[in-house]
Amino acid sequence: MKKILGVIMAGMLFGCAPKAEEFHVVPMPESVTLTPGSYSLAGKAFYADPAIGENAVKAVERFAAQLALVSGKTSDVSTEDNGQPVRFLPNPNLGEAEHALNVKKSGVTLEASSFNGFLYGIETLKQMLPEKIYAKARAKASWALPLVSILDSPRFAYRGMMLDPCRHFWTIEETKRIIDVAAAFKINRFHWHLTEDQGWRMEIKKYPRLTEVGAWRNGTMIEKDWDSNDGIRYGGFYTQDEMREVVAYAAERGITVIPEIDLPGHMVAALASYPELGCTGGPYEVRQKWGIATDILCAGNDKVFEFLDDVFDEMVDIFPSEYIHIGGDECFGGRRYKGEVPWDSCPKCLARMRKLGIKRGPDAKHYLQNYVTARVQQMLADKGRKVIGWDEILEGELAPGATIMSWRGTSGGVKAAARDFDVIMSPNKFLYLDYYQSKETDKEPLAIGHCLPLEKVYSYEPYEGMEPGTEDHVIGVQANLWTEYIATPEHLEYMLLPRLSAASEVQWCAAENKDYARFDASIDHLFRMFDVMGYTYAKHARGLIGLPGSEQPAAPAEEPAAE
Ligand code: ACM
Ligand code: ZN
pLDDT tens across 300-318, in order? Predict the structure, then answer.
């Protein structure tokens, strides 16, 4: 199957009108066979076989309603078969997420074996229609689909994106907008980074101070001036009802929300709320600068584990995800920090190390972190959940069963897979969407640094550097959007789009089916889509840099040096 698109992209099956260059679906389906002609969808009756399931029928109804809204022609959806020309049918022979979509002169059939399979087929239908299918009111367009036969399924089962609502807070409505655009690119995991040094965002009823105190900071450093402070109280949090609303909203779009509680580091907001959870007892205050704090949860105090168990009880009740993300990154002041950490001089932590037989020395903290991770892993296993952690949890001796999210480049993922752990690849150099998008940083809105152009995101190959035979441990790929330097929805979307669509081809397409020139030819389609959907996006791929209102032409590409 994987070979078929390769053949098509070589032009053999795409040779007839409409041309391959005019077929713009991102991520590109695995197998596409176009034939001349088109099918007009507006006003056609839909049959949704009840065996496709209630949720899939609802998704078909939403699609029909959207088509009716923009076209002005009603498409009735019925679960009774009257020979309607647009048909949504179960096909148990297709794999999870796989779907077969056929558009002929006589009508359309979409077959799948799962809810997500139907959703992905519908997303493909939308992208094959004029971009005005995404409009919020009646729009003039042809509503014609190309005649096509598509068989499609993703390369990776886990296709994620992460949003940081802690450094800057994003309302439920903005969060849903991000989920909407992720769904358009067939992303199926939304990793919600809900706790940080700079703000705790998740209501926990047993610990009200986490949001009374921990959700608010009394100022924020200004841009990159580490000695500055704007003195403005900043914060916010999500109630449990709001988080449930996001979970349900995402689920309707085929996306599982994976919440993160980052521990034992990145916990200053929790320590400010309950100082007894730290090694020194504080006082602590919600952090007002970016960067990495050295104050972390005390690993020697059993009250900390009671606290975590209680928090997990409430989390698992809100989030039905198979995984809970437990963070684990940068617990000891970051990579360059060589000083003492609170665990080195805390009587309770030192007693715990002695009891565990951990020898003093530079690696002791990693073994103590292993103890914290293992205890948390067991707590969550008792609640029927598995853990994901950032690649730092691999240092020392990680207990089996955890999934590693490789962010410090790819080496954590490579090592984890070699040690038989499952891996989600999220290397900063390729998938950190808070990085600048060009080298012309004077034309860009502020970013954390580095340079991650669209093409570089696209170029990422998740198996690169893996030890042969360990590739199957890579269960997925994720793009991350940290928000230290991003304070407005427009800026957030500018950083996300269109780089998320490039990431979606890394997640969805077989390596041999990726082709940057072909993807680039779909950029105008994507831009029109974002325009109709009302998103802000970056236009580097068409020679412009900057947020709307301050766009500037990019410098001309340098001539290659003469031989
Ligand atoms: C991370 O970027 N600190 C996971
Ligand atoms: Zn301690």
Answer: 999 999 999 999 999 999 9
Choosing from 482, 483, 485 the residue with most ligand 1 atoms within 8 A of its CB, the one to mutate for a pocket test is 482
**Which of 238, 413, 438, 422 has its CA nearest to residue 323?**
422
Q: What is the CATH number of domain 158-516?
A: 3.20.20.80
Q: Is 444 in the pocket of ligand 1 (CB under 6 A)?
A: no
Looking at the chain, the domain(s) classified CATH 3.20.20.80 span 158-516
407 lines ligand 1 (CB under 6 A): yes
Whether this model's pTM surpasses 0.70: yes
CA torsion 250-256-257-260 (nearest 10°) is -170
CB distance 260 to ligand 1 below 6 Å: no
Intervals of CATH 3.30.379.10 along the chain: 6-152
213 CA distance to ligand 2 centroid (A)? 22
Q: Phi then psi for 288, rounded to 5 degrees? A: -110, -5
Ligand 1 nearest-atom number relative to CA 390: 4
What's the gap in Å between 284 CA and the centre of ligand 2?
15
**Pair of tokens at residue 418:** 């070699």
Reported as a single tens digit per residue, the pLDDT across 365-422 is 999 999 999 999 999 999 999 999 999 999 999 999 999 999 999 999 999 999 999 9
Neighbours of ion ligand 2 (CB under 5 A): 279, 298, 300, 346, 348-349
Cβ neighbours of residue 539 closer than 8 Å, sequence gap 6 or more: 527, 545, 551
Arch. (CATH architecture) of 6-152 = 2-Layer Sandwich (3.30)
> What is the number of residues in the chain?
563
What one-letter code names the amino acid at 77? V
